[in-house]
Specification:
It is a single chain. By secondary structure, the protein is an alpha+beta fold. The chain folds into three domains: 6-105, 3-Layer(aba) Sandwich (Rossmann fold), CATH 3.40.50; 134-203, ATP-grasp fold, A domain (Dna Ligase, domain 1), CATH 3.30.1490.20; 208-447, 2-Layer Sandwich (D-amino Acid Aminotransferase, Chain A, domain 1). 34% of the residues lie in helices and 27% in strands. It is built from 15 helices and 20 strands. It has helices at 13-26, 42-46, 65-75, 91-99, 109-115, 118-127, 143-153, 176-194, 251-267, 299-306, 310-318, 397-410, 420-427, 430-434, 441-446; strands spanning 6-9, 29-35, 49-54, 79-81, 103-104, 157-165, 168-173, 199-203, 208-217, 223-235, 238-244, 272-281, 286-292, 335-342, 354-355, 358-360, 367-371, 378-379, 386-394, 412-414. The strands form five sheets. Strands 13-12-9-10-11-14-19-17 form an eight-stranded antiparallel β-sheet, with helices on both faces. Strands 3-2-1-4-5 form a five-stranded parallel β-sheet. β1 (6-9), α1 (13-26) and β2 form a beta-alpha-beta unit. The longest helix has 19 residues, at 176-194. The protein is globular.
Length: 449
């Protein structure tokens, strides 16, 4: 088995920089693709080669499969890393790469396809002994079946688009009389948003924690998990703060959730890196929610507490190397927190684009900043507003929180608004300090905490 000589990165921003760093350390040459407006950016400057693939509109650049495959061909790249977002969870893209003789750095196309069919995955995993939220057995055909299922599991229920995920296409239904209309609307919305009207039903769990587990799997079927991340602090399904390990999680629950994640990976014959998302309710019950078949924005907190470079692992696994990590010899150290810094106003979260006139990221002990921003860079309106991730590692949660507070106060970003003031407010709140929060944290915070 030989590692790749050259990898093309089909992404932009901080994750493109992150992948370039992993490649450099592995002695792999890099090609980055970019859109017209991204010509003067850090990934273009840091990569060995850069190829312009089209205009700013993602459909014509970062989502343009023929342009990306052509760029790989002319530069002799042997593999493509898709990062997150864009083409990372597109099974046709993964297939198209392999058909062009290029290795897609990620799971098998079948893994990606199944990950995008949430109702089918639920059904399969339930059969294999992974607990799923009480609800429908796969896709719900019609309103009669929807009503029967909802009455059986009890209200409130939540309708989810099978092709959705990350909160898109969801609808909470409080009572019997609202169900049929809601079901039809959910189907229509799913069709409009995802091109498929498959909808499934789950019991609605009002106080929940969103806990996910990082997994790695090789071609021989070896699977390890790298522990959990608590991603409960979200706003409109956008994660804002993540931490590893999950605060206050019972050790028995922690062990079980890791085992369920590995069981999930085995049941799906999963390959490469992935994330298994769970709901943990207020009584500590664990339910599988969905699987994300890409590297996630928040992967650095897992890297911080395990010392594993997840991007390097993805590359080695895609090259066919067997996993060297053994579950039993993994060591978890300290507590890590990530704050996502968005170019948005910190009250209403409206995007704030423009020129960054001054940029000074924090550093010092236990601080990592993943970013592609710099003084003089203009944040474009065309893409995601994430401009930096601040990741801290402390010996315990208290040190991590104090370190994050210190790092964020040190961070100077001028010329645009950012979510840093919001994060400082969260860090100083009682509920966050106690680590006793659920996905409803932000509504409580805004309710005057
Ligand atoms: C749920 C849920 C309660 N019960 N599923 C899924 C994706 C994630 N971003 C939010 N998701 C949820 N799934 C069951 N069975 C609660 C959420 C949820 C949520 C739902 C509707 C509106 C706002 C929400 C905020 C956080 C979590």
């Amino acid at each position: 088995m030989k590692l790749f000589k050259k990898i093309l990165i089909a992404n932009r921003g901080e994750i493109a920089v992150r992948v370039i760093r992993a490649c450099r350390e592995l002695g792999i040459r890099t090609v980055v693709v970019y859109s017209d407006i991204d010509r003067e950016t850090m990934p273009v400057r840091l990569a060995d080669e850069a190829v312009c693939i089209g205009p700013a509109d993602p459909a014509q650049s970062y989502l343009n499969t023929p342009a990306i495959l052509s760029a790989a061909e002319i530069t002799d790249a042997e593999a493509i890393h898709p990062g997150y977002g864009f083409l990372s969870e597109n099974p046709q893209f993964a297939e198209a790469c392999h058909k062009s003789g290029i290795t897609f750095i990620g799971p098998k196309p079948e893994n990606i396809r199944l990950g995008g069919e949430k109702a089918r995955t639920r059904k399969l995993l339930r059969k294999r002994g992974v607990p799923v939220v009480p609800g429908s057995d796969g896709v719900v055909k019609d309103e009669e079946e929807a009503l029967k299922t909802a009455r059986k599991v009890g209200f409130p229920v939540i309708l989810k688009a099978s092709a959705g995920g990350g909160g898109r296409g969801m609808r909470i239904v409080e009572r019997d009389t609202e169900l049929k209309d809601a079901f039809r609307m959910a189907q229509r919305e799913a069709l409009a948003a995802f091109g498929k009207d498959d909808v499934y039903i789950e019991k609605y769990i009002s106080e929940m924690r969103h806990i996910e587990v990082q997994i790695l799997a090789d071609d021989e079927g070896n699977v390890v998990h790298l522990g959990e991340r608590d991603c409960s602090i979200q706003r409109r399904h956008q994660k804002l703060i993540e931490e590893a390990p999950a605060p206050g999680l019972d050790e028995k629950v922690r062990k079980k959730i890791g085992e369920y994640a590995v069981k999930t990976a085995r049941a799906l014959k999963y390959r490469n890196a992935g994330t298994v998302e769970f709901i943990v309710d207020s009584s500590g019950e664990i339910y599988f929610m969905e699987i994300n078949t890409r590297v996630q924005v928040e992967h650095p907190i897992t890297e911080a507490v395990t010392g594993v470079d997840i991007i390097k692992e993805q590359i080695k696994l895609a090259a066919g190397y067997p996993l060297e990590i053994k579950q039993g010899s993994l060591k978890f150290r300290g507590h890590a927190i990530e704050c996502r810094i968005n170019a948005e106003d910190p009250e209403r979260f409206v995007p704030s684009s423009g020129k960054i006139t001054f940029f000074y990221p924090p550093g010092g002990p236990g601080v990592r900043v993943d970013t592609a921003a710099f003084s003089g860079w203009t944040v474009p309106v065309n893409y995601d507003s994430l401009i930096a991730k601040v990741i801290v590692l402390g010996k315990d949660r208290n040190e991590a929180i104090n370190r994050m507070d210190r790092a964020l106060r040190e961070f100077v970003i001028e010329g645009i608004e950012t979510t840093i003031p919001f994060h400082l407010r969260v860090l100083s709140s009682e509920a966050f300090r106690l680590g006793e929060y659920s996905t409803r944290f932000i509504e409580f915070l805004n309710g005057g905490l």
